[in-house]
Amino acid sequence: MNFTADKWKILAALTVMVVALTFVFPSSFYYRVAALIWISAFTVIGLNLLMGYAGQVSLGHAGFFGIGAYAVAIGPVHLGIPPLLSLIIGVLLAGALAFLIGRPVLKLKGHYLAVATLGVGILISMVINNEAQWTGGPDGMNVEALGIKSLLKSMGWKVKTAKLWYWITGIVMICGAWVALNIIDSPTGRALRAIHDSEVAAKVAGIDVPNYKLLAFVGSAMYAAIAGAMLAFMNRFITPDAAGFLHSIELVTMVVLGGMGSILGSVVGAAFLIILPQVLADLQHYEHMMLGLIMMIFMIFLRSGIVPSIANKLKGRAA
Amino acid sequence: MAELLQFLFSGLTVGAVYALVALGFTIIYNASDVVNFAQGEFVMLGGMVTVFMIAAGLPLMVAALCAIIVAVIIGILLHRLAIEPARGASHVTLIIITIGASIFLRGLASIVFDKQFHSLPAFSSDTPIHVGGASILPQSLWVMGGTIVVFMMLYFFFERTKVGKAVLATAANRLAAKLVGINTSMIMALAFGVSAAIGAVAGILVTPITLTNYEIGTLLALKGFAAAMLGGMGNPFGAVVGGLIVGLLEAFGAGYISSDYKDAVGFIVILLVLFVLPNGLFGKSSVDRV
């Protein structure tokens, strides 16, 4: 396989998509939904490194997402730390927490790993829900602006919030994909794939398995924290739902739906699960039923994910 | 002392419910290797269907029976329509399917029933019984007694009946079970049905105390899963002990530490236990053949 050529193809495709969509979007609403997709896609790319490459599942990544989001909310409001510095601190905190719990958690396998990561995610969301004096509890809290808009304004450049965040999140997402693709196409990436195929074989080949798993876990947690911070800055408001169990499940579903180990799939999976509720919103009461039904149908019939399934079809036709 | 006893009573009551949910998990896991996150929905269905059947004028016992039958049918449908077609899929895929099923059932319940909280009348009396300065509701005794009866029945089923042994054989080695003439697909459907019935029983027993609503399944499923893991996945005895431990920890945590973090206590303990014993309290450590 030629990863280097594939890498530039994928990055080019993502860039073309982000730029081209701006020509067809009729209203701010579309920019907003697309920005939400880029944010989720960014998280999912990180999580895909852990799930699709290192082969470790996490049912608690919304917790790290929440840490990033609440760091930029709490920092400026309660501690007087500037927004950008709060973001960095939040991402480092998420990384540090992942590092601390990663080693014992990643020793577990299969369903035990699932329940442990689930527990970590739930504990984080409980802290956010209960420490109301810091986080506003279940009602959520306001987030101070990052200040990019006013900076642009002072330079005489007026831009709509939705459009501005479309570009910021789009560019960050492409950068995230670029970093992930570079990791995949490096000795580290090959080590991770070896672990996915067989931990024992990887160990025998001299790969430091626990360290590489930990690396993927910490990296994906930091991806999630950055995405959480972006969401908080964009919405200027954050609620504990961002760190909740259901959000963790959505993220995992995006990974599997788009295709494990596929960067392009991460974006497709995120787009699918963000757009779906918007479409179903017209059905009001039936929204949840439909969501559950579609999750089941896709997992039953498109097990390997949307992008790999299509890729296989195309390959089959060519051959 | 009275305080301690009070926490013990409430802990055992909730713990018994977690134990039933964990038992449901265990039966399905043993037969099919699937962790069924829709397990909590069976508990919800048990309570909700009974409430609405009683509202329709049926006596409690008939309503409860109807609720169990509804849960069993849905459990079997879940297996036939969602789990069976996805045979051979990865663990994560199966987890997402059962979570999809739980979201679906929750949505369905919110339409068929409503989004209100509902209660059931207590089975015998509402007057608390006083024991050593603490008090316990008669319904709590029903919950604990019900859990013991269910456990005994399961024990009898698995140890003394041919069908029960077939389930155990399927759990031990599906291929070998098939080779000796066991209809493994049928056995798995049976496991889903039995597990759904247990969930529904839990829901019917506990609704007079904790109320029910279309959303109660999620947290119950998570805690039941945690309890099953704590006891060691696949071990019915471990599931019951795990459930009781989680219930007791919650009650004591809420009483002595902070009621805000009541739900957290169970998960903290599970993390600590898994760090020390990666296969749970009563799980066999497995050796993988490479």
From TrEMBL, chain B:
Pfam families hit by this protein: BPD_transp_2
Transmembrane helix recorded as keyword: yes
Protein's membrane topology: Multi-pass membrane protein
Subcellular location: Cell membrane
GO cellular component annotations of the record: plasma membrane
GO biological process: amino acid transport
Family statement: Belongs to the binding-protein-dependent transport system permease family. LivHM subfamily.
PANTHER family: ABC TRANSPORTER PERMEASE PROTEIN, BRANCHED-CHAIN AMINO ACID TRANSPORT SYSTEM PERMEASE PROTEIN LIVH
Protein's recorded name: Amino acid/amide ABC transporter membrane protein 1, HAAT family
Annotated source species: Cohaesibacter gelatinilyticus
